[in-house]
Design a protein that fits this description.
Blueprint: E1 6-10, E2 24-28, H1 35-44, H2 51-61, H3 66-72, E3 73-78, E4 83-94, E5 97-107, H4 117-131, E6 135-139, H5 144-152, E7 156-158, H6 162-177
Parallel strand pairs: 5-6
Antiparallel strand pairs: 1-6, 1-7, 2-3, 3-4, 4-5
């Protein structure tokens, strides 16, 4: 399957309530120093080859807008304070307008498979709905489990080109096999 960026949109209506399992909590970015935790989570989840590159990305993408980041970056933590995941209810330009963006949804490998993705995504979408009427996300064809979740949450694929349509057809074929 070709690995091109795939996009999905959501109208931010009908956000399901997905409670967290016992022993976990969600909280917003509180201190700039938590960028270290964001970098650790995103690196552990395989988004960056090392923490230095993750920190550089945080510095470029979020640090200049720290007050906004404190309202939009979620952390998933254990009851004893360990950082398990993150998601951003960010904003970005999409088709010539500023809309919400579900961004950097990541869970550390040791916490995956514990029913944490749905509550994390639900809270991020709820945050997005506080600021926007519409949101988008960017994913890739290899992220079948994530795409399955996004579809369940009401995100719909965006297909501007025949190439995107072909890749989406491959994704749907793979999802139907599982």
């Amino acid at each position: 399957m070709e690995n091109i960026p795939l996009y999905m949109v959501h109208d931010l209506d009908d956000i399901p309530n997905c409670p967290l399992p016992d022993g976990f909590k969600l909280c917003l970015l509180a201190r700039e120093e938590e960028c270290e935790q964001w970098a650790e989570i995103t690196t552990a989840a395989g988004e960056f080859p090392d923490k230095t590159q993750a920190l550089k990305r945080f510095a470029e993408e979020f640090a200049p807008y720290l007050s906004e980041a404190k309202k939009r970056i979620l952390f998933l933590k254990t009851a004893d304070g360990r950082y398990a995941g993150t998601a951003s209810a960010w904003l970005s330009k999409w088709e010539k307008q500023m809309i919400g963006r579900l961004h950097w949804v990541e869970i550390k490998p040791e916490f995956q498979g514990q029913k944490l993705g749905r509550p994390l995504i639900a809270k991020a979408i709820e945050l997005l709905s506080n600021y926007h009427q519409k949101a988008y996300l960017k994913t890739q064809p290899r992220s079948l489990a994530a795409i399955h979740l996004y579809l369940d949450f009401g995100f719909t694929p965006v297909m501007h080109t025949a190439e995107e349509e072909n890749v989406w057809n491959d994704v749907f074929s793979e999802l139907n096999k599982g």
